[in-house]
Amino acid sequence: MRRTLLFSVMLLAVLVAALPASAGSRRYAENLLDDWVEIAADMAYEAFYTDVDMIDIDHTVSYYFDLESGSYYFLAEGGEDTEDIDMYIYDEDGYELDSDTLTDNYPMVEIEIRRAQEIEVEIVAYSFYGREYEDYYCFVAAADVSDIDDWRSTDSGDLDEILEYWEDWAYDSGYDVLYSSTGTLSRDTSEYYEFELESGSYHIYAESLNEEDDIDLYVWDEYYDELASDTLADNYPICSFDLRSSEFVEIEVVPYTYEVGNITDFVLVIAADGNGGLLYDDYDEGHYEPPSDYDLPVNDSRDWDYISSVMDDYMELVIDEGYEMIYDEVELIDPYNQRTIRITLGRGDYIIFGEGGLRVDDLDLSVYDENNRLIAEDNMTDNFPICEFSVRESTPVEIDVVAYAMASGWDAGYYLLVIVRD
User: What is the dihedral of CA 86, 92, 97, 99, to 10 degrees?
Assistant: First the structure.
C-alpha cells in the first residue's frame, strides 16, 4: 500500500478543521467528506463516488465499481467514536489488490488498474472507543481527472441517445415534452424532482443506462399520497396520471438492482397529453430552475433537508460564540410521544437550543434535575425554544421535548436539539 506525504499532511488539516460534534453525528462525517473531496481535487483527482453511512462492529460495507484502466484513490474516515477501521480492495476474481489495516480510523489506498474490470472496496470496522459499537463514516472514491473525462465521453453518448428516444416517443405520441434531464443513482439512494403542474394528463418516462438495471418510479402529491408508480422488474419505468387542479408533485426515481457496481446513470422525461404544463416562468428550452424552499411542497425529505441546514447555522453559532459543544441531535417527533434525553452535566452555565422543522408549529422544552424538579423551561407558542440554566455540581438532568402543535395536515416532523456550555 502506498500513502503519499501530501495526503498525510492534509489529513492533519482535516482533523484540525473538523467541527466538534456529538457521538455518532452524521453531520460530523459529512464535514469530513467535504474536506476529503477538496483534498482529492487539489491533487488533480476527482471524486466520482461519495457516501456517508453508519457502520458497526458486526457488519462490513462493500462498494462495487466498474473501472477503466487508470489511477485511483479510495479514502474513508470514521467519526469521533471510531478508533480503527480498515479497507480492502479486491479485483473481479476476488483477489486482494491492496489494503490499509493500520491502527487508525482513516484508511487510504492508492491503486493502478491496468485493464477494465469490476472491483470491490470493503470497509471494516475494527474497533470503537469506550462502549460504542457503531458510528458514521465517510467514503470517497476518486480517479485521475483524465480518467473521469474518458468515462463521461464514453457514457454521455449512450445516455443522450436514450434521452432522445423518449423525447421522440413523446412527440410521436402527440405529447408536449415539458422537462427532460439526466441523473445518477448510487447505492440505495433515490433521486427526487419537484414541480408545480397545471391540471391535465401527464406521462413520465425514466430509463437507466444499463439494460440489466432495475429502477422504479413513483409520483407523489403534495400530501405525499401516491399518484402513480411503476415497480416492474425493468430499467424503464413509466408513470401516467391526471391532475384535476394545479398542485405540486414529487417524482422519485428509485434504484432497485444494478447491473454492475452500485451506481448507474438515467434519463427522465415529463410530457403532457394535450392540457397541462409547468407553472414556472423561468422554464426555457429545457432549463428548469427549481423554486425556492418556501414554494416547494413540504414532505419528509424536504423537512429533513431544512432542519439539517438549520443545524449547520447552529454549529456556526457555537463556533462564533466560543461555546463548548455538549450534545446535538436531529430526530422525528409527534404530539403523542415526547422525546426525553437523559444526560449528566458537569458544573457550568448551559444553553439548550431547540427548533422545529417545516412541519412543527410549536415546540416546547423542559429541564428537570435528578430530583425531578423543574430547573428551566420554554413553553412559548413558537417552534424555537431556548433554556438557560446553571449547574453547581455534576448532576444528571432530564430534558423533555414536546411537539405541542403541528402544521396543518401533518402528525410528525423533524426537530433539532443543541446543548452547549457557555
Answer: 0
CATH number for the segment(s) 5-148: 2.60.120.380
* CATH ID of 173-297, from 2.60.40.10, 3.30.300.20, 3.90.230.10, 2.60.120.380: 2.60.120.380
Convert the pLDDT of each residue in 189-218 to its tens digit.
889 998 888 888 999 999 998 888 899 999
- pLDDT tens per residue across span 219-235: 998 877 889 999 888 89
- C-alpha cell of 288? 428548469
CA distances from 299 to 162, 188, 196, 275, 358 (A): 31, 19, 14, 27, 9
Q: How far apart are CA 241 and CA 346, in angstroms?
A: 58
What fold, for 301-421?
Jelly Rolls (2.60.120)
User: DSSP assignment, residue 20?
Assistant: P
Q: What is the pLDDT of residue 268?
A: 95
∠ CA 37-128-416, rounded to 5°? 65
Cβ pair 268, 206 in contact under 8 A: yes
Cα dihedral 86, 89, 95, 97 sign: negative
CB 166 within 8 A of CB 207: yes
CB-based contact 289:280 (threshold 8 Å) = yes
Provide the phi-psi class of 36: left if phi over 0, else alpha when psi is between -120 and 50, else beta: alpha
C-alpha 269/C-alpha 110 separation (Å) is 39
> In the chain, what are the domain boundaries?
5-148, 173-297, 301-421
**Residue pLDDT, tens place only, 114-128:** 778 889 999 999 898
DSSP string, 267-305: EEEEEEESS--B--TT-BTTB--PPPTTTSPP-HHHHHH
pLDDT of residue 274: 76
How distant, in Å, are the alpha carbons of 86, 293, 308, 409, 414 from that of 403? Answer: 42, 23, 18, 14, 10
Rg (CA), the chain: 25
Rounded CA gap, 293 and 306, in Å?
8
Rounded Cα distance between 419 and 422, Å, is 10
Are 5-148 and 173-297 the same fold in CATH? yes
> Considering only 103-107, 152-156, 400-404, which range has the smallest mean pLDDT?
152-156
- Residue 62, number of CB atoms within 10 A of its CB: 12
Count of Cβ atoms closer than 10 Å to residue 214 Cβ: 18
Q: What is the mean pLDDT of residues 13-22?
A: 40
